[in-house]
Amino acid sequence: MRVLTGIQPSGALHLGNYFGAIKQMVNLQESSDLVIFIPNYHALTSLKDGKALRDNTLDAAINFMALGIDPNKSTLWVQSDVKEVLELYWVLSGYTPMGLLERAHSYKDKVAKGIAANHSLFSYPVLMAADILLYDSEVIPVGKDQIQHVEIARDIAIKFNNDFGDVFTIPAYKVDEVVATVPGLDGAKMSKSYGNTIDIFCSEKELKKACSKIVTDSTPMEEPKDFQTCNVYALAKLFLENDEVVALQERYTKGGEGYGHFKAYLQGLIWNFFEEARDKRAYFLSNPHEVMDILEDGAKKARKIASEKMIHIREIVGIYR
Ligand code: ADP
Ligand code: TRP
Fold first, then answer.
1. Which ligand 1 atom is the nearest neighbour of the CA of 197?
2. pLDDT band with cut points at 50, 70 and 90 for residue 234
3. pTM assigned to the model
4. Who is most buried in 47, 191, 201, 302, counting CB within 10 A?
């Protein structure tokens, strides 16, 4: 089963990104044909700084590999390394009713926030449909905000297939309901846009600072504490086995320890958990050519699928070569 995902090269990754998305990808590569690309063309819709986009793209590849995406098990490439996607985007545009795009939440939300609308923002879902359909992807794991985009890809594929037969595999989205929302420092959903994140690859000092900022109540040190409402506990739980969770609950209910102790404990859990990832990241950062070779290998595999698909599509729509 081919599972495709595109992960934006959008800077520092936080615990929400790891437990909400990357961990599932790492598991998926064991059981499926996982293909992952870095959608740098999509990032162009909002990032207008060439150097930053280039740096973020390589950095994203390094981060995913450091966190367990294994190029021997899955295919990893940069979107712009397979130009066929732009050609398909244009072909699909002819099968995309304006109303379909006008109804897209992501576009409407951005316009409502006062972000100046340009055509790339508007046609973003068509490029995403091209990403999905070019590789005959069957399953697209997404966050809730991206469901509508996969539905648009389905609609476009169905319209196209109505005219030309079974050209495209009709994709399905998959939302992982079991993944709980990881809370941020203030208890709201951890998100870059709320400034309440704990970043995976921060320094030890920054991690300490972030943990110290986690909002707790003011129960005095000696008294029992309610772990169920505690953000520190909610975060710590992500790193613990069942028996360790029970042990931590007992420490809360027993009293005698302050939130400072629990924060220090959490800090240690986070730091140790990502130790191997930090080492791998440091390795790739000092060997960028190795990363580029991996991305080129991935692009070759992706290009092979894409070029065969496009030969067929050009033929049926009448683009003569
Ligand atoms: P952010 O909200 O920081 O901008 P993104 O929207 O770029 O994060 O999210 C990238 C991926 O990480 C998505 O699949 C999203 O579902 C997941 N994710 C982000 N924040 C969280 C969170 N707090 N809890 C669970 N998953 C999250
Ligand atoms: N739009 C997705 C996001 O913002 C990224 C993306 C681009 C994508 N193309 C895709 C995701 C194709 C899945 C499939 O997160």
1. 3
2. very high
3. 0.91
4. 302
